[in-house]
Structure formats: structure tokens, C-alpha cells
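LOG
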Amino acid sequence: NYTDHDHLIEEDICQALQKNEESKDSLGAHSRRVFVASKVMPEHLHYEDVIIACERSLKRLGYLDVYFIHWPNPEIPIEETMMAMNKLKKERKIRYIGYSNCTVEQVKEAEQYGQIDFLQWEYHLLERSIETNGILGLQDKVLVTYSPFYHHRHISQTRRALLQGLAEKNHMTEYQLVLYWILRHPNTLVI
């Protein structure tokens, strides 16, 4: 279900997790400090494929907190995918179910078959569709936003100057200001 590159990323993450597990907190106790997420690709959303893909990720990562449906696939019924996700959750192979790059309607359809706990969407100064498409209105979800700094490559000099001025006025860097702007929404994370 992964490209060779994705497989290597999970292996690198596994090594980092092992080092984290070996560390101790200030009281000398072992504690897990990393929240781990992975995704199942849209071409692998059939029931058996979801189970197999998750097992492979678990073998590499050791555990999964949230498992995302990476993109909706109109060729595979969401009921079938959610049956597999619910099985994984019931068996405690995953803690939460996530859905990436989906519409509000797709979330509602999926939730006819089980709870969606996390949503993932691109969100930055130039991609703000979640402000109008209803995703931000789904209050009982954790929203994981990605590509927060994408705008830096595509912003005009005028807007860059405005952003720099706002950041300086608020004693922040541009990056801190952008993160603050995104995280103003409740239940929002940035990756």
C-alpha cells in the first residue's frame, strides 16, 4: 500500500519511536510522548486491503493512535472501508479513525457506519476553503491541518510585507504568526 519511499519513512519513524520509548521522563518513569498517525491510500480502501495495510504499518511503527483514510475513493463504498476501520478500532489496533481531504457530506456518509474522530485538510493563507465548506463547523472533530507554510513560495511581495509587519507588531516571526492564525480554531493541530 505504500511506495518504497513511504515504507522508508515509517521505518525511520519506528527508529525514532524506539529511542523515545527508551527515554525516561523527569521522574524516571517510561512514558509515551509521541502520537502516531498513518494513512491508508485510496486504492486500498476495500475491507481486506485496509486491514492488511494497517497490519503492515503496525509492524513497522509498533502502534497507531489514528489511522486516516487518505483520500475518498468513489469506486469503493465507504461502508466497506468503515467496517474495516471499526474492526481495527474494536480490536484496539488503532485508537481513532481519521478522514483526510473529504467533504462534509463524505464525513456524514462515513459516520452512518462509525465515528470519525479526526479530519485532515490543507490549510494556509492561500488555501482557506475549510473556512467556507463546513469542515470548521464540525465541532466534535480534531482538525489536523497540513502545509501551513506553503504560501511562502507563492505570496506576493506586498502580502509578504504585510505579513512581516503584522509579525513584527506582535513580536513574532512570520512562521509563529501563521501558526497562531491557524491554531486560533478550537481542536486544531498543525503538521
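LOG (cont.) second protein
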Amino acid sequence: PIIDETPAEPTDKEIEKSEKKPRKDYKTAWEFYDWAKACMDRNGENYNPEFAVKLFTEAANGGITVAKYKLGKLFLTGNGVEKDIQKAVEWLKQAAMEENEFAEYALGRLYMKGEEKDTVAAEEYLLKAAKRGNKYAAYLLGKEYLSGENFGKEAGKAEKYLLKAAEYGNKYAEYILRTEYLHSENFTKDI
């Protein structure tokens, strides 16, 4: 059995950990980023998504890659702002060009299932993200190679990426691996 659900989105902590620009060297840009995050807190007194977009843009223009990712996600989901796939793709591609694994993962998902379906681009972005250690991308690749729904069905690749995802702590991947080892002939070794 294939689990349809894709695990939860990455946390802010995971995303910010991927940033290569140190706070001490990019102090002003980081201040814009932190202020923007406060403006996106629905429970906070400063909730103002439109202003957050302006602040994230300042942070992005100041060199903060995760701000580019955040802008891409905001426009992709329409969370507090008008949904705009074209702007989302622009910002996510900028972050991906700076090797942001979460932007690569988001683009991979978008191209796999979104309005901009392109399974070749989806696979490329997911492979890049998984190579950088993104557990969400590794899980999704494993699941897709197992099902053959969007990419070719390849049990060896499915096992490889599900094992990677499980090593990164993805419980969904662990479940699929155990199930496949016990009840199917797709994989050959026990865990």
C-alpha cells in the first residue's frame, strides 16, 4: 500500500537552518526577515500579510535566500496574499538557484502536481533537494518511484530514496519500507 499523504511542510526552524548567510553579516536583511515573520503570525498583534510581503522582499533583496523561499510559498498558497503562481515560481527559482533545498522541494511538488505540471522538471528539482538532505523530497521520490504515477516505476530507486528519507527521520518512509519488505516483492532486504 502506498501512503497518499505527503508529510507536513518543513518548519521555520528547518528552513532557517538551511540559510547560508550569517546573521552577523546580513544584520539589516535578517531584521526585515524577522519582522516579516512577526507580521505573518495570525495570533500576533502585528498580523499584516501585505506588509510582510514588503518586508520579505527587502530581506530577499538584501541577500536572504530563505526570504525568497518564503515569498514563493506565500504566493504559491495565497496565504494572506493573492495567489500568484507566476510570482511564486519566480521567487522559488531564485531561492533554488542559491541551492535552497526547500525551494527545490516546493518546485518539485508544484511541477509534479500543480497547474504547471512538468514531471521532468519535478524529478530534477526533487533529486537536487534530496541530494542536499531534504527528507521531504527523498520521501516523495521514493513514493513516486514505487507507484510509477509521475516517474517511471523503479523499485531500486524507490527503496534508495525511502531509505534515505527514513535515515533523515521520516516516519512515513519507515512505514512504507516495513510494509514493502513484509508484504511485497518490490524490495529484497529486511530492515
